[in-house]
Design a protein that fits this description.
The protein has 118 residues and is mostly beta strands. It has strands at 2-7, 10-13, 18-26, 33-39, 46-52, 57-59, 67-72, 77-82, 91-100, 104-108, 112-117. Strand 7 (67-72) and strand 8 form a beta hairpin.
């Protein structure tokens, strides 16, 4: 089993910064992908950013140039640096880790609230 624990959410003014962290523990296959999703009130969950164990990254168009995803493989931790935050970034942010080994293994964190005030 794998556990994901997120931290770093909070309340910030527009234009501010936050850094989210997600630490994974348990039986983790090294060849994995870590992602950040978010769900805003009344909206569907969306993929914010993705990073592979090799360091390849992808971002949603809405956060390109403002957010940066990174990971520390030794610590099984993924980070989301969020700069120039906007009120529309307000959402619950979820960490996800998945890998393929004896099937598809898919794990989610509990979520952390990010609120950006105008």
């Amino acid at each position: 089993q794998v556990q994901l624990v997120e931290s770093g959410g909070g309340l910030v003014q527009a234009g501010g910064t936050l850094r989210l962290s997600c630490a994974a523990s348990g039986n983790i296959f090294s060849n994995n992908v870590m992602e950040w999703y978010r769900r805003a009130p009344g909206k569907q969950r969306e993929l914010v950013a993705r990073v592979t164990n090799g360091g390849s990254t992808n971002y949603a168009d809405s956060v390109k140039g403002r957010f940066s995803i990174s990971r520390d493989n030794a610590k099984n931790t993924v980070y989301l640096q969020m700069n120039s935050l906007k009120p529309e970034d307000t959402a619950v942010y979820y960490c996800r880790l998945w890998f393929i080994r004896s099937g598809f293994n898919d794990y989610w964190g509990q979520g952390t609230q990010v609120t950006v005030s105008s």
